[in-house]
Hints:
The protein is mainly alpha-helical. The protein has helices at 19-29, 38-53, 60-75, and strands spanning 7-8, 15-16.
Amino acid sequence: MPDIEPFKSPVDGSIVTGRRSLREHNKRNDVTNAADFKETWEKAAKEREKFYTGSSSYDRRDRIEALKYAVEKHTRRR
Length: 78
């Protein structure tokens, strides 16, 4: 993996010259790369897709629990 090109940090204005420097910079400023969240964002995009397309798998578990609750509530004897 090639080293990264030097750049000026938008966080503190320091010059980051390589991967090691970037790791130290991130640790010092308590920040992270956006690439660290790639999988999280992809998963969230899939969930939004299910929600907006009306996929039955989106809230299937919640709907099943609501049905169980309703059946239990209405079949109890007082």
